[in-house]
Structures are given as C-alpha cells and as structure tokens.
Design brief:
The complex is a heterodimer of chains A (about 220) and B (about 290). The longest helix of chain A is centred in the first third of the chain and has 36 residues. Chain A is mainly alpha-helical and about 220 residues long. Chain A is built from six helices and no strands. Chain B is α/β, with parallel strands linked by helices and about 290 residues long. Chain B is about 35% helix and about 30% strand. In chain B, the strands form three sheets. In chain B, strands 6-7-8-3-9-10 form a six-stranded mixed beta sheet, with helices on both faces. In chain B, helix 4 runs antiparallel to helix 5. Chain B is globular. The chains are: A mainly alpha (about 220), B alpha/beta (about 290).
C-alpha cells in the first residue's frame, strides 16, 4: 500500500512536469493529423512523424530535469523505470485515442474527404496502437541516459535499433500509402504492432537492468 | 560521539574524464552542521550524489543513521531532506499541487509544517511561475516538511536575497538545536558557513584536503603578512601555503598564537574561510 502510494506520488510529479507539454503536443499533432486526412498520403506520414517526435522529445526534456530530485526521494530506481514507461505509454495512447476520436468524427461528418486517401477505419487500430508503442519505447530508452556510459554493443542494441525502426516505420507507411506493398493495411498494422510491442517489452527489460547502474 | 553520516574511502571515476573522487572520508556528528567548500568542479556535488545514490560509487562506504546506504534503503531517504542547486518547478505547478505529490512520497510529510514554511518564506500555496529564488525557497520548504533528520544542501542558499538567507540560516540552527539532526551544506557563500557551520570540509580536485572545526579555522589558523625578509626568515615547516602579493607575502599558518609568540614583529591576522580557501587553491608550497 505504501509503495503504491509512493508510485502515485511519483506519477503526480511527472504529470505536473509534463502536462503543459502534453497538451501542446497533443494539440499540434492532432491538428496535423486531422489536416493530413484531407491531403495526399505523404502528409499523413508527416503527421505521424510529428506526433512520434514532438511529444516524446519535449516530454523527455521535462523528465530529465526531475530525475535527480526524484532519485533522492524514498523510491527505488526500478520504480522510476516503471513509472516512466507507464507515463510514456499512457501519453502516447492518450494522444492516439484523441486522434482516433477525431478521425471517427470526421468520417461521420465527411465520409470520403479526399479521393487520394482512404479514411482510417476501426480495423486500423493495431496500426495506430503501434504508433503509440514505438515512440514511447524510444523515449523510455532516452530517459535515464541509459546509453550514456553503455558499451558500444549495448548502445547498438538500445539506441540504434529503435532509431532505425523509428525511421523505417514511416517509410513503410509511405509505401502503404502509395500502395506499393501488396498487403492489406490491416495486416501491416498487425505486423507492425507485434514488432512494436516486442521491441517495447524488450526495451523495458533492458532499461530496467541498465538503469540500476546509471549515474544521474 | 555518535555520527549521523559516515563516508569512508569513497571513490568514483567517470569514463572519458580525468576527474575522480579519491578516497573521500568524513563524518558528521549528530547535532552539527558540516560546511562543504571547494572550487567549482572539485567534487562536492559528486560526493553528495554518491551519498544519495543518484551517482553509483565505485567503492567505499556510505553509512547514514548507522546503516549502509543502498538503493533498497528507502526508509533512510525518508529521513533525508535534499535541496540541489536548482529546483525546476514546472510552470503550472503550485506549492499545493507539489505537496499533494510529496504527501504520497514521504511517510512523515507534515502539511501544517509545510504551510508554516510557506508563510515564513512568503510563498502563496496556489501561485505558480516561480523565480529562481522563490523556487529555491519552495525546495527548502519541501525538504524541511517531512521531518528529516539529515539535510543535504548543495548550494541551497544561492539565489536567495540576504534577508531570506539569514532566515534560512536561522532555520538551519533551529533544525540542529535538538542535538539529533545534522546538515551537510555546500556553499560558495563562505560567510554563511562562518555563521552556522560547526565543521568545515575543504575539497580540492576530488580529494578532501582537510576537515576541521570551524572555530579552529577561525581562531586557530592565521595569515601572516610578511615582507620579503620576514618570509625568508620563516621556517618552511611552519607554513601551510603562501601567496606573493605586490608588497607582501601572505602565509597561511596552522597555529596563529604560536606564530605571534615566535615572530612578535610580524602581523598575523585571523583567517576567514574564504581567505583560507583562496590560499589553499591559489597559493604555493615550499
């Protein structure tokens, strides 16, 4: 009970420090995302990249400032990793949920806003979810400077790989948008979601292990 | 004498850096204030971070309240109040909102005490957007409001105006007056340390140069103001360090009274902490 209360307090501190940024990021990325629905597929990619990069990057800056203060409080280092992962994931999921609501609303108001682009359906939820999972993983890896003093091999594992995925992920979306891939959007979504989830779980385990030895 | 904090042979080296903490050892008795001085980058903050565990030490031991400080020892951190050199209060946060979080984190959080400190520091519970000085005051209020037994302050009084600093120093003295609580206080404002510290620890390039009672430093140490001839006549074993100036040489000596008796024709002034620090950093040794 005591531990749960402490974690709640820690979450509140994180929330206070990132709330403003979250609302700003949410507004911008939602606006871009909605705008993209009326434009060719390339804009959709831009919207996704914006959402992926904007919120985690700014949120990360706020987290970093609090880290040392939080670590001097009566909590375990491992608890911080848990809270940060939940926070990152929660933020992105929240963003994506808002976007989905907007998409649904647009679909109702204007079922076919543009001939060049297919309006997202509910069957695209895995794809949208994977958008949420990947950046939160990237953010969580940045957090705690887990790669700062890691060996080259570890750096490759915990930094290069997710960044490459982050780069290739939108590329796949472009290909999908341009209908170059001979697969259904639904199956791409499921595949990407599975990849993202695997990466997320692996990164959680790695960062838990690494953060135990990191200087803050 | 019962110790509240004991640091023994603390070592820390950073990759790709020449700096290291080199066998840092000191202890703080209950009911006392230890002033921690040294140049920027000498290792004060690193030492404090190693004590708190935010930086992981390479070797050595840190015992607080008689127990080894580890990541698992959250109950020890419950009894420590910490203020770092900055407290980045989020723009929209208010003391009341932060108190809501702190109430969950600290076992002994005391809302009434927190409100008293807010009043003392003239902070409004529902106002945000703090200046640096105000955010430092808020950090102090938070550090003091969970009934800690040990306070660790890293440049906590910097950025505060003289009136509030004086108030804070009074709070420090009140805090240790029960004989059970202690403070480790790093500060570049040496006049503050002269007012409140019982002990002074001086650190240089990652090593503890000395830990001494403040009164010994203030009334025991002395600075001889010597002419060139007087300087040449001085026994080199009696000087700790010296610094040549335009028309005189300042020599730091450990036993002022003995020097006055031995060299009655020389001027031997009382030394301030700042002067001692400057002579140790900038002075030369024979």
């Amino acid at each position: 009970m005591r531990k749960a209360k402490r974690l709640w307090g820690l979450w509140l501190l994180d929330f206070h420090s990132t709330r403003g940024i979250l609302i700003f990021g949410l507004f911008i990325s939602s606006a871009v995302f909605v705008g993209a629905l009326f434009l060719p597929a390339i804009s959709l990619t831009f919207a996704i990249i914006a959402a992926m990069l904007l919120i985690p990057s700014t949120q990360h800056m706020s987290f970093d400032r609090w880290q040392r203060i939080q670590l001097s409080m009566p909590i375990h280092r491992q608890d911080m990793i848990d809270i940060r992962f939940l926070n990152c994931l929660g933020t992105m999921l929240f963003t994506v949920i808002v976007m989905c609501v907007l998409i649904v609303l647009i679909s109702i108001i204007h079922p076919n806003p543009c001939e060049n682009i297919r309006v997202l359906k509910f069957s695209d939820i895995p794809l949208v979810l994977s958008l949420a999972v990947l950046p939160s993983y990237k953010l969580a890896m940045d957090f705690g400077r887990v790669t700062r003093y890691a060996s080259k091999r570890k750096r490759l594992a915990v930094w290069t790989l997710p960044n490459l995925i982050t780069v290739f992920f939108p590329l796949i979306i472009i290909l999908w948008g341009q209908r170059l891939l001979d697969v259904t959007p639904e199956s791409i979504g499921v595949i990407l979601f599975a990849i993202a989830l695997t990466v997320f779980i692996t990164s959680y385990a790695i960062s838990k292990k690494l953060f135990a030895k990191v200087d803050v | 004498m019962s110790m509240i904090l004991e640091v023994k042979d603390l070592c820390k080296q950073f990759p790709k850096s020449e700096f290291k903490l080199d066998n840092v050892s000191f202890s703080i008795p209950k009911g006392s204030i230890m002033g921690f001085v040294g140049e920027n980058g000498c290792g004060k903050t690193t030492t404090m971070n190693c004590i708190l565990g935010t930086i992981i030490k390479d070797s050595g031991s840190v015992r607080i309240f008689g127990e080894e400080m580890t990541d698992a020892a959250t109950h020890i951190r419950d009894d420590i109040g910490v203020v770092f050199d900055s407290f980045p209060v989020p723009v929209k946060s208010t003391p009341r909102k932060l108190a809501n979080a702190m109430r969950c984190i600290f076992k002994n959080w005391d809302d009434q005490l927190f409100n008293e400190y807010l009043e003392r520091f003239k902070l409004k519970p529902d106002t945000g957007n703090f200046s640096r000085g105000m955010s430092m005051k808020l950090a102090l209020a938070i550090a003091l409001s969970h009934h800690p037994k040990l306070l660790i302050f890293d440049e906590a009084t910097s950025g505060l105006d003289p009136v509030i600093r004086d108030e804070v120093l009074d709070i420090f003295l009140e805090f240790v007056s029960n004989g059970e609580n202690s403070i480790l206080l790093s500060s570049h404002i040496t006049s503050d340390l002269e007012k409140v510290a019982d002990y002074i620890m001086f650190m240089q390039e990652g090593k503890v140069v000395f830990t001494e009672e403040k009164d010994v430093l203030k009334y025991g140490y002395g600075i001889m103001r010597l002419t060139a001839a007087q300087f040449d006549a001085l026994d080199p074993r009696e000087m700790l360090t010296y610094r040549r100036r335009d028309y005189q040489t300042d020599v730091l000596v450990k036993n002022r009274t003995a020097m006055v008796a031995k060299y009655p024709d020389t001027v031997v002034d009382l030394a301030t902490i700042e002067e001692i620090m400057l002579l140790l950093v900038k002075g030369e040794s024979l």
